[in-house]
């Protein structure tokens, strides 16, 4: 009887444990996964040596905004996947959308693609330079089917910049950096508004049915997985819009967060709850359709959270858009049956550029010798717990960002102009110069009131004219003790390293806006507006005009 009771108890516990895995399916939430509620692996899924690669990129998720970092926001799916995989707790991205995405897809620092300043704006004739080989292009070379669902934000002013021209077999999502989660409309400025939902190279008007984007993208992922043969390798890049502003979420996700007084934090929590459920349903679909056992799931935020929009990076300093740790240290983990050290924490240095060589190597692809990568293959670091091959990270050098008023070559020991915004990490040391951005620590109690309350924020009043900071990030991850005055030799070493990197930089690509980008001129849709034939016509006209002028000059001379 005792044995029977124990077995019954274990059976009940098993059902309770599995309950959440099936929860999204039963309730029909953020992308349903119907059928196999317990997520069992069908026999049809035969393992191949080339793994299925699923890269999930969240947008603006704060460092603290995951359950296993102590958040009040419940993220049971992320917590479970991370606990059974490898948590990346020394993992870095870039402080904004375009830079992180460009580095993921090329394996190169911003200074090597010309995208070192800000983001690509909707009206700019700019995109990820076409001479850069992309991750999906390399995976296609070795037989992968490549699909992207979600936010692109790497430029679209000409057709060649579109995702389907950069290595993806299919694309369903938005081209811009943000937009309404239901209507998919975006206004860049008064009167400059348009629709921004695409299927491959065309506006997806048929999908304009008012479905919340997190749920809509998840449904698309399920369709792709259902129609693909799991015996053939697939690369699925899911770049969710959540939890980027505008702060919108379906009503039922507010259920657990009505006690949060701060409206932005409450909405943000609901958005994250929906995202967590969506990822649960993606995982269920991987199991249901026979991919899971030979899959690698990578989860990452693209940058730190924005406190004014509900995000929290506590106890890190700073926010999205800054080079303090709160802007660039991200939530990240790898979940896969192929990991050797499951259930572990990786504290080795990992950067978003590392995914390019890591995933190509796992896919049995080749990295051309002439591609000058900034990323490293870190699979053994993650899977087996070995030391990282990476010892430094160039966070960025932005030569056209607002210069620090008191920066100078003298402050940089004649090695570097400290007026320039830059940041670099070498081993334990991190150096910042110029204007590194909003530098407050924003503790949880800052969200206790109905509106943003900066009285709770912690600030440091720097001495006037300061343009250099040095921190031992290993010992002081919260950047509370500036050591630049105490260790001038270390400062000089890092400034020299900055100078070396800067010698390899390409010119910044940040053109002025083009009036032809207005969606009113493109059927009300944001999309490619630059026509190659127009350029040729203009070129031909100018050549003709030059010829006419030359003949006139000759006649005058005669």
UniProtKB/TrEMBL annotation:
Basic and acidic residues bias: start-end ranges: 530-543
Annotated signal peptide: 1-24
GO terms assigned for molecular function: metal ion binding; sulfuric ester hydrolase activity
Required co-factors: Ca(2+)
Keywords carried by this UniProt record: Calcium, Glycoprotein, Hydrolase, Metal-binding, Signal
Region (Disordered): 506-558
Segments forming domain Sulfatase N-terminal: 51-363
Ranges of biased composition (kind: Basic residues): 549-558
Gene3D superfamilies reported for this sequence: 3.30.1120.10, Alkaline Phosphatase, subunit A (3.40.720.10)
Family: Belongs to the sulfatase family.
Protein name (record): ARSJ Arylsulfatase
The encoding gene: Arsj
């Amino acid at each position: 009887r005792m044995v029977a009771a124990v077995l019954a108890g274990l059976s009940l516990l098993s059902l309770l444990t599995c309950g959440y895995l099936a929860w999204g399916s039963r309730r029909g939430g953020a992308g349903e996964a119907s059928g196999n509620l317990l997520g069992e692996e069908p026999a049809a899924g035969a393992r191949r040596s080339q793994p299925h690669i699923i890269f999930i990129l969240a947008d603006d998720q704060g460092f603290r905004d995951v359950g296993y970092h102590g958040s009040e926001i419940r993220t049971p799916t992320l917590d479970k996947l991370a606990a059974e995989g490898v948590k990346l707790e020394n993992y870095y991205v870039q402080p904004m959308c375009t830079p992180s995405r460009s580095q993921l897809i090329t394996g190169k620092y911003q200074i090597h693609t010309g995208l070192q300043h800000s983001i690509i704006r909707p009206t700019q004739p700019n995109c990820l330079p076409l001479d850069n080989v992309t991750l999906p292009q390399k995976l296609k070379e070795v037989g992968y089917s490549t699909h992207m669902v979600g936010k692109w934000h790497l430029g679209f002013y000409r057709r060649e910049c579109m995702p389907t021209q950069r290595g993806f077999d299919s694309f369903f999502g938005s081209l811009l950096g943000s937009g309404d989660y239901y209507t998919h409309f975006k206004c860049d400025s008064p009167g400059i508004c348009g629709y921004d939902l695409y299927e491959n190279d065309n506006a997806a008007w048929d999908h304009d049915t008012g479905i919340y984007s997190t749920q809509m993208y998840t449904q698309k992922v399920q369709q792709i997985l259902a129609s693909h043969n799991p015996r053939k390798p697939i690369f699925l890049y899911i770049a969710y819009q959540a939890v980027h502003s505008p702060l919108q979420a379906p009503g039922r996700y507010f259920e657990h967060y009505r006690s949060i007084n701060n409206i932005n934090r409450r909405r943000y929590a609901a958005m994250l709850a929906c995202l967590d459920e969506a990822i649960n349903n993606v995982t269920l679909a991987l199991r249901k359709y026979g991919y899971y056992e030979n899959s690698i799931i990578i989860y990452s935020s693209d940058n730190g959270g924005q406190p004014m929009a509900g995000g929290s990076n506590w106890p890190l300093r700073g926010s999205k858009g800054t080079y303090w740790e709160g802007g660039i240290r991200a939530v990240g983990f790898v979940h896969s049956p192929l990991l050797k050290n499951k259930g572990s924490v990786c504290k080795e240095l990992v950067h978003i550029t590392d995914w390019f060589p890591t995933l190509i190597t796992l896919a049995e692809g080749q990295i051309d010798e002439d591609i000058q990568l900034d990323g490293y293959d870190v699979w053994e670091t993650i899977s087996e717990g070995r030391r990282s091959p990476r010892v430094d990270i160039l966070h960025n050098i932005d030569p056209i960002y607002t210069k620090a008023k008191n920066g100078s070559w003298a402050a940089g020991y004649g090695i570097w102009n400290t007026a320039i915004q830059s940041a670099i990490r070498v081993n334990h040391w991190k150096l910042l110069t110029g204007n590194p951005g909003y530098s407050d620590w924003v503790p949880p109690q800052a969200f206790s009131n109905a509106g943003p309350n900066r009285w709770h924020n912690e600030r440091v009043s720097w001495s006037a004219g300061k343009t250099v900071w040095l921190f031992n990030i290993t010992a002081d991850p919260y950047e509370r003790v500036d050591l630049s005055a105490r260790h001038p030799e270390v400062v000089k070493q890092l400034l020299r390293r900055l100078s070396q990197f800067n010698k390899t930089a390409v010119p910044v690509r940040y053109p002025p806006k083009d009036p032809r980008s207005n969606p009113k001129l493109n059927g009300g849709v944001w999309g490619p507006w630059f026509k190659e034939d127009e350029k040729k016509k203009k070129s031909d006209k100018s050549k003709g005009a030059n010829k006419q002028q030359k003949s006139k000059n000759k006649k005058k001379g005669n």
